Amino acid sequence: MKESLDTRMKIVIALGGNAILKKGEKQTYSTLIKNIKRTCKNIVPIIRNNKVVATFGNGPEIGYLLLQNEIAKQEIPQMPLDVLGAESQALIGYLFEEQLLNELRKNKIKRIVSTLITQVLVDKNDKAFKNPTKPIGPFYTKEQAEKLKKKFKIKEDSGRGYRRVVPSPMPLKVLEKEVIDELVNKKIIVIAAGGGGIPVYLKNNELIGVEAVIDKDLASQVLANSIKAEVLLILTGIDYVYLNFGKKDQTRIIKMNVKQAEEYLRENQFAEGSMKPKIEAAIRFLKKGGKKVIITNPESVVKDLNNTNGTLIVR
Question: Among 65, 104, 165, 193, which residue has the least CB neighbours within 10 Å?
Answer without folding.
Answer: 104
